[in-house]
From TrEMBL:
InterPro entries: CofD, CofD-like_dom_sf, FbiA/CofD
Keywords (A to Z) from UniProt: Magnesium, Transferase
CDD domains: CofD_like
Lineage: Bacteria, Bacillati, Actinomycetota, Actinomycetes, Micrococcales
Keyword NAD: no
Superkingdom assignment: Bacteria
GO molecular function: LPPG:FO 2-phospho-L-lactate transferase activity
Gene name of the record: cofD
Protein name: 2-phospho-L-lactate transferase
Enzyme Commission number: 2.7.8.28
Length: 310
């Protein structure tokens, strides 16, 4: 029975959210461990973009065209902030702002990000468990020719145009995994590394002390889904970041990053030719259609991963 299968997904934003949604549709008992190193404070508000992307997607509220934010948004507050001379390069919708106001108020009142996330997901009707990777502050800093940039400054304000010369996850060494994270990694029947950016979304999660080692020694069946299809990223700067950090821009390049951490590499039909080279790394290969269109595509991929883990 699929609903007895405990699945943990390590996720960044959009790709992780889609796969998590597929797992829910397939009936899995799902926990999602989410990157929080993209989190940013703007207008005095604590914003957790990847947690919100996964939350809104699982709640059926996401803007499916952009992948992030809420469907049917309005921007009256952002327009008013602009008139007041505030920086408005980060697009915050009116309804989305309510999430950030509630999160900030609860954090200031002393709740942890794990507790706040449980409250928000519960209120929005999400039935799976969402865990931030940590309750501590960890921030991705992107080294560029123009100097270090905060993640959202690199990603949104500068549209990820800068070449990434290096990455630092500030605070990671002192951080602790959020409650439940290590158990979710070690105790799952199936652990899935989502088709999220390996360096910008997955590496921050693995950099929280204990997470990488727990994954490496987990008795779960472990599968990573390549975010690179046919030598290109499905979304965002995964291809350019792999290239600038000296890695092959291919599912093989991604597989090399996950050797020792997963048992199976899931690659797209378009990359079938790479299967022997990935197998030579000691990984099993699952070749399928990994491009998740609508709900059907998400559920189909999730069911294939579940079948491969049985
Ligand atoms: N991404 C953008 O490209 N532009 C935006 O203005 C933007 C606003 C935004 C607001 C709330 C939110 O939860 C996510 C938002 N994102 C935006 C997405 C986000 O910056 C990135 O997709 C992730 O951080 C990368 O995983």
């Amino acid at each position: 029975m699929v609903n007895d299968v405990r699945v943990t997904v390590l996720a960044g934003g959009v790709g992780g959210a889609k796969l998590a949604h597929g797992m829910e549709l397939a009936g899995a008992d799902l926990t999602v461990v989410v990157n929080t190193a993209d989190d940013v404070e703007l207008h005095g508000l604590a914003i957790s973009p990847d947690l919100d992307t996964v939350t809104y997607t699982l709640a059926g509220l996401a803007d499916d065209v952009r992948g992030w934010g809420l469907a049917g948004e309005t921007y009256a507050t952002l327009d008013a902030l602009r008139r007041l001379g505030e920086d408005t390069w980060f697009t915050l919708g009116d309804k989305d702002l309510a999430t950030h106001v509630a999160r900030t108020a609860r954090l200031r009142a002393g709740a942890t990000l794990t507790e706040v996330t449980a409250q928000i997901t519960g209120s929005l009707g999400v039935r799976s468990r969402l865990l931030p990777m940590t309750d501590d502050l960890v921030a991705t800093v992107v080294e560029t020719a123009d100097g270090p940039l905060g993640f959202q400054e690199y990603f949104v304000a500068r549209q990820h145009r800068d070449e990434v010369l290096g990455l630092t996850f500030v605070g990671a060494e002192q951080a602790s995994p959020a409650p439940g994270v290590l158990d979710a990694v070690s105790g799952a029947d199936l652990l899935v590394v989502a088709p999220s950016n390996p360096f910008l979304s997955i590496e921050p999660i693995l950099s929280v002390p204990g997470v990488r080692d727990t994954l490496a020694s987990s008795s779960a069946r472990r599968v990573a889904v390549s975010p690179i299809v046919g030598g290109r990223a499905l979304k965002g700067p995964a291809a350019s970041v792999l290239a600038s950090l000296g890695h092959d821009v291919s599912a093989l390049g991604v597989a090399r990053l996950y050797v020792g951490l997963v048992d199976v590499m899931c690659i797209d039909e378009a990359d079938r030719d790479l299967a022997p080279a990935i197998e030579a790394l000691g990984l099993e290969v699952l070749v399928t259609d990994t491009v998740m269109g609508g709900a059907q595509g998400r559920e189909r991929l999730a069911r294939e991963l579940l079948a491969a883990s049985a």
